[in-house]
Design a protein that fits this description.
- There is one protein chain.
- A hairpin with a 5-residue loop joins strand 10 and strand 11.
- The protein is an alpha/beta fold and about 475 residues long.
- The protein contains 17 helices and 16 strands.
- Helix content is about 50%, strand content about 15%.
């Protein structure tokens, strides 16, 4: 699946292939990388967290046109055909494919209608700034259809909303969705086809979203500040809520000003703050990926991250008598990575989409290389990762991981020599790399030898040339 963006903030246009497991956004400052990353987050979040049953009608549920299409498909199923007890009706392969095509076309048509509102919420600013913005999602229709046709489904929860419906199911080896009605007296109304269609719409809608839009987690460039100041920000926000409650019955314009303060931060930052404010509760959960949290602590932090009963993040250095340091007393690397440790230990789910803005923040070059290796390990555990980076160290180390994966028998010796592990190596076909420049992006070719970011290479070459000439002219 690809997403195409136009006229969003400083970003004039961009296209990103979201089907890749590792996505790298590179380029100079102020060229639209953060706009692209935040937009991807905002759109995927809206589709993932919204009422899936309404997404085909534009996320906001203003149209039921898609239901009418399915109703036409089902017109062949008359009341007489569904009159007997336990009668089984069937939506066949061709009808599913026709429905999916219509569904996907409807999503894109409606997305552009509600896109300014979605962006206004994502960036916490006026909708008027995005009236010329557009988005297009290019779905991988054949992959999606194969997924729908080859996936088993049993939907008892849907049945609860339609009393006359006994079940909706789809077996893995069958090409259609089956629905079965309860036995009813002949003088009562037979199964309501619109309700059946609604339930089948929910199934297809959920399946499409689950296939394309994973759970999201974002690590913003403001992560260190969030770790330190989330409590103070929470107190301030609660004070604003209290004032709003006092003004809720008033027509005073001050209420709008207070609402503006609540929405001051972009959605990714608001979501990160929400996690920081709920650490005590979230820490009760245990993710099956806690070993990745252990890995970060072992390789990068040289200590343990814990959460107190009050939800305070604490750090205990290895080989030290000092324990449970408050986060504001720790080194910058701990502040920068502590929330990622918490995520893998308590929140991470299989197949999550992780977005990290400038992973190199506060990291020495050797730790930037370690982070790059960690990315290889993360995607090999089934996660999808998008990073926005200026780091030549991270890019070169990713290229090393790609080359070692592609290098065959000779690569094993080199991997052992330089301390690379098999679980860190990356298949180049799973990588998408993009250069943002002049407020547009271009896709970089990723091969068995990795990829090149010319804007970084040019700066390094210029610096090397200048250093050599200065040295040899003045001191040789």
């Amino acid at each position: 699946m690809k997403i195409k963006l136009k006229n969003i903030g400083t970003l004039k246009q961009a296209e990103i292939d979201l089907s890749k497991d590792l996505i790298i956004l590179a380029g100079p400052n102020n060229t639209g990388k953060t706009y692209a990353a935040y937009t991807v987050y905002g759109v995927c979040d809206a589709l993932r967290k919204g009422d899936k049953n309404n997404l085909v009608s534009g996320i906001d549920g203003r149209s039921n046109a898609w239901i009418m299409v399915l109703h036409d498909i089902f017109s062949a199923f008359s009341k007489e055909k569904a009159s007997d007890k336990n009668d089984l009706s069937y939506l066949d392969k061709e009808q599913i494919i026709e429905s999916v095509d219509d569904y996907l076309d409807n999503i894109n048509e409606r997305l552009n209608t509600i896109f300014p509102e979605c962006l206004g919420n994502t960036f916490a600013t006026e909708i008027s700034k995005f009236l010329d913005s557009t988005i297009e999602i290019l779905f991988e229709k054949e992959l999606l259809k194969n997924y729908l046709l080859n996936t088993r489904i049993e939907a008892p929860n849907f049945v609860k909303t339609t009393p006359n419906l006994e079940r909706i199911s789809k077996e893995k080896d069958r090409n259609g969705i089956e629905y079965q009605q309860n036995g009813l007296p002949k003088d009562e109304e037979r199964i309501n086809f619109v309700n059946v269609l609604l339930q089948i719409q929910k199934y297809i809608s959920n399946a499409i979203i689950d296939f394309h839009f994973n759970n999201l987690y974002i690590n913003t460039a403001e992560r260190s500040a969030i770790s330190i100041f989330s409590k103070e920000l929470s107190i301030k926000r609660n004070n604003i809520v209290d004032q709003l409650l006092e003004l809720r019955d008033s027509k005073n314009g001050d209420a709008n000003q207070l609402l503006g303060k609540l929405q001051r931060y972009p959605l990714p930052i608001r979501d990160s703050l929400a996690i920081s404010e709920d650490l005590a509760n979230l820490s009760r959960n245990k993710s099956e990926y806690g070993f990745l949290a252990d890995r970060i602590e072992e390789v990068l932090l040289d200590g343990k991250i814990t959460t107190s009963k009050d939800g305070e993040v604490q750090y205990s250095p290895n080989k030290s008598k000092v324990k449970n340091l408050s986060i504001h007393l720790t080194a910058s690397i701990v502040k920068s990575l502590s929330n990622l440790v918490f995520y893998f230990r308590h929140i991470a789910q299989k197949g999550d989409f992780i977005i990290i803005d400038e992973p190199e923040l506060n990291l020495h070059p050797d730790n930037q290389r370690k982070v790059a290796r960690l990315f290889g390990e993360i995607i090999n555990q089934g996660f999808k990762v998008m990073i926005s980076t200026h780091s030549d160290y991270i890019i070169r180390e990713l290229n090393n991981l790609i080359m070692l994966k592609s290098g065959g028998e000779k690569a094993e010796y080199l991997a052992n020599k330089y301390g690379y592990e098999e679980k860190q190596l990356i298949d180049y076909q799973r990588v998408g790399a993009y250069l943002f420049n002049h407020n547009k992006n271009i896709s970089l070719e990723v091969t068995e030898t990795g990829f090149e970011v010319n804007t970084i290479d040019e700066v390094i070459n210029e610096l090397n040339n200048a250093s050599e000439e200065i040295y040899f002219t003045l001191f040789d």
